[in-house]
Specification:
Elements (H helix, E strand, L loop, with lengths): L4 E7 L13 H4 L3 H12 L3 E7 L3 H11 L3 E4 L11 H10 L9 H8 L1 H10 L7 E4 L15 E5 L13 E2 L2 H14 L4 E5 L3 E10 L3 E3 L3 E5 L12 H5 L1 H7 L1 E5 L7 H15 L5 E9 L4 E8 L8 H8 L4 H17 L4
Parallel strand pairs: 1-2, 1-3
Antiparallel strand pairs: 4-7, 5-6, 5-7, 8-9, 8-10, 8-12, 10-11, 12-13
């Protein structure tokens, strides 16, 4: 294995300390992905430099010129406080002739806007719930084809930001209230889609042109409060104490209907290609009580921390953490060498 000069690019607030000795899980949580990836890159023998950025492209240019990395390991989720600016930074890397890991700018841009990506999925006959977009500063009018219950989300935020139990609405008043909340609090357009009663599933995809799917993964809710729905809310996603309280667990999905796993794999490969993604992604799905799988969204560059869904599902397929990180590096180098047309 060739040793590489790697620049790990991340938000400046998430640059990990040299040592995590004595830190609690809560203290470690904000930068666990960054720490795990950087530690593994160094364990693999790669010459790894860490750069934390916020809003200054100049420091990226200066660091690239100074260390001349073989590849940038991209761990950025936003730039200048905006998630949709990350693709532009990656476009800059491409113009500079610098390889990077993860998804390309086109795939990231399409995945960032849920409405646009869902239109593309529907064009390719990939099953998605019926949906409608509700732009800011426009009257809320529910299309006739959209039936209750609905789940209302930000059209551009990811990581379950803005999703709560109140996101699932069953009448016009609640729909208007939730859309107004997202417009005012998150300052984004809203999207409402038909809520699928059933199971919360995930599947990881690795690759550029040749794709590998990881095992179908499932989120289990063992002790939800009475009346709560089994959805991955912002609190479920990020509040460790709440996760422990309601006993959230993720594991390989069991007892799937015959043929469902293969069908889900095909759906996710088609979706990955439909929006031109590369590197790696986690696909979110719902499996209805009738056994039909619906793609909810595609998440390029998901969390890579040890113990998170993506790494755990890779481990379940005998792809150890060191092999996963090296595979992501290799995919980045291969994409950089491929002709862009």
């Amino acid at each position: 294995m060739r040793k590489l000069r790697v620049l790990a690019l991340m938000l400046e607030d998430f640059v990990p300390p040299p040592s995590i000795e004595g830190m609690s899980e809560d203290q470690l949580a904000p930068f666990k992905t960054e720490y795990d990836v950087v530690a593994m890159l160094r364990e693999l023998g790669h010459d790894t430099c860490v750069l934390g950025v916020a809003d200054d492209l100049g420091i990226v240019r200066e660091t690239l010129q100074a260390i001349k990395p073989d590849i940038v390991f991209n761990l950025l989720e936003e730039f200048r406080g905006v998630g949709s600016y990350v693709p532009y930074l990656l476009g800059y890397l491409e113009l500079m002739g610098v390889a990077y890991t993860g998804c390309n700018p086109q795939g990231l841009l399409l995945a960032t806007h849920k409405g646009l990506s869902k239109k593309i999925f529907r064009h390719h006959r990939i099953p998605v719930p019926n949906f409608a977009l509700f732009p800011k500063k426009r009257a809320v009018r529910r299309p006739r084809h959209l039936s209750y219950p609905l789940i209302v989300k930000s059209a551009t935020e990811h990581g379950s930001v803005g999703i709560a139990q109140a996101s699932v609405v069953r009448d016009e008043e609640k729909l208007r209230d939730r859309i107004a909340y997202l417009h005012e609090e998150l300052h984004t357009d809203a999207i409402a889609e038909e809520y699928i009663e059933g199971r919360e599933l995930y599947i990881g995809v690795l690759g550029n042109s040749r794709l590998q799917t990881l095992p179908v993964w499932e989120m289990h809710f063992h002790d939800l409060p009475e009346g709560s729905l089994p959805i991955a809310t912002e609190k479920v996603k990020w509040d460790r104490r709440y996760q422990q309280k309601i006993k959230v667990k993720t594991a390989a999905a069991g007892d799937l209907p015959d043929g469902s796993a293969r069908l889900i794999e095909r759906i996710c490969r088609r979706a990955y290609r439909a929006v031109g993604q590369t590197g790696y992604a986690r696909m979110d799905l719902r499996l209805s009580n009738e056994g039909k799988a619906y793609l909810i969204e595609s998440n390029p560059n998901p969390q890579l921390a040890r113990g998170e869904d993506f790494a755990e599902s890779a481990q379940h397929q005998s792809l150890k953490y060191d092999q996963l990180i090296q595979r992501i590096l290799n995919l980045g180098l291969q994409y950089h060498r491929s002709p862009k047309v």
